[in-house]
Amino acid sequence: AQSVAQPEDQVNVAEGNPLTVKCTYSVSGNPYLFWYVQYPNRGLQFLLKYITGDNLVKGSYGFEAEFNKSQTSFHLKKPSALVSDSALYFCAVLNPGGGADGLTFGKGTHLIIQP
Amino acid sequence: DGGITQSPKYLFRKEGQNVTLSCEQNLNHDAMYWYRQDPGQGLRLIYYSQIVNDFQKGDIAEGYSVSREKKESFPLTVTSAQKNPTAFYLCASRYRDTATNEKLFFGSGTQLSVL
């Protein structure tokens, strides 16, 4: 079975500093990896994905993520945080060769950017 | 939120009552999903449908039912058998045009509470 771990419930970063939100995964085969962001009382918005190719993936709002196969990680990063980046972030994995359909999500990480 | 409409935004259920959450999409996507979101638990898959007139149970289907009579619509009924229905419910549809290009689009969610 596939699984996703987001080890931090909350990450606090000062505005202007770099941010990292951690994600590790477990899946047999080559994973498809995703990051989504959720603002209060809203649905999830797609940020970026890794399917194949370059390990550094660039997405929306200046976010990027680095796929590391040896460490089974897909950490979300941004060089300079904005207060408006404060939200709930979900990492998700899909095993295209697996039997189950749909994405498996991590528990989410609250990102708080302090002015 | 990507052409997916969920209604109502807020819903209250009385003891022993069945309630139905609406999900409509105009994206022409074949696959649709229902997720339940509880604080600190991420998203859990309730039901999914890959094509009209077909649907499959997800990880937490007990106490829920769905139908898929039209491509555009995937309503979720929370039955009286669901003893802990209070949660935020998210509907999604899946875009896939090649084996390496796919993502989920989410609705804005329905908050269900028990009176």
Short synopsis of the structure:
The complex is a heterodimer of chains A (115) and B (115). Chain A is mostly beta strands.
Description:
The complex is a heterodimer of chains A (115) and B (115). With 115 residues, chain A is an all-beta fold. Chain A is 0% helix and 50% strand. Chain A contains no helices and twelve strands. Chain A has strands at residues 3-5, 10-14, 19-21, 24-26, 32-38, 44-50, 56-58, 64-68, 73-78, 87-94, 104-105, 109-114. In chain A, a hairpin with a 5-residue loop joins strand 7 (56-58) and strand 8. With 115 residues, chain B is mainly beta. Chain B has no helices and eleven strands. Chain B has strands spanning 4-7, 10-13, 19-25, 31-38, 42-51, 54-57, 64-66, 76-78, 87-98, 101-106, 110-114. In chain B, the strands form two sheets. In chain B, strands 2, 4, 5, 6, 9, 10 and 11 form a seven-stranded mixed beta sheet that branches. Chain B has a four-stranded antiparallel beta sheet with strand order 1-3-8-7, with no helix packed on it. In chain B, strand 9 (87-98) and strand 10 form a beta hairpin. The mean pLDDT of chain B is 90. At the A-B interface, strand 5 and strand 6 of A face strand 4, strand 5, strand 9 and strand 10 of B.
Q: Which terms summarize this structure?
A:
heterodimer, A: 115 residues, 6-stranded mixed β-sheet, 4-stranded antiparallel β-sheet, 0% helix, 50% strand, B: 115 residues, mainly beta
Helix content of chain A: under 10%
Structural class of chain A: mainly beta
Mean pLDDT of chain B: 90
Unreliable stretches of chain A? none
Show unreliable segments of chain B.
Answer: none
Q: Strand percentage of chain B, roughly?
A: over 45%
The computed structural class of chain B is mainly beta
Distance between the termini of chain B: 29 Å
Q: Helices, strands, pairings?
A:
The complex is a heterodimer of chains A (115) and B (115).
Chain A: E1 3-5, E2 10-14, E3 19-21, E4 24-26, E5 32-38, E6 44-50, E7 56-58, E8 64-68, E9 73-78, E10 87-94, E11 104-105, E12 109-114
Parallel strand pairs in A: 2-12
Antiparallel strand pairs in A: 1-4, 3-9, 5-6, 5-10, 7-8, 8-9, 10-11, 10-12
Chain B: E1 4-7, E2 10-13, E3 19-25, E4 31-38, E5 42-51, E6 54-57, E7 64-66, E8 76-78, E9 87-98, E10 101-106, E11 110-114
Parallel strand pairs in B: 2-11
Antiparallel strand pairs in B: 1-3, 3-8, 4-5, 4-9, 5-6, 7-8, 9-10, 9-11
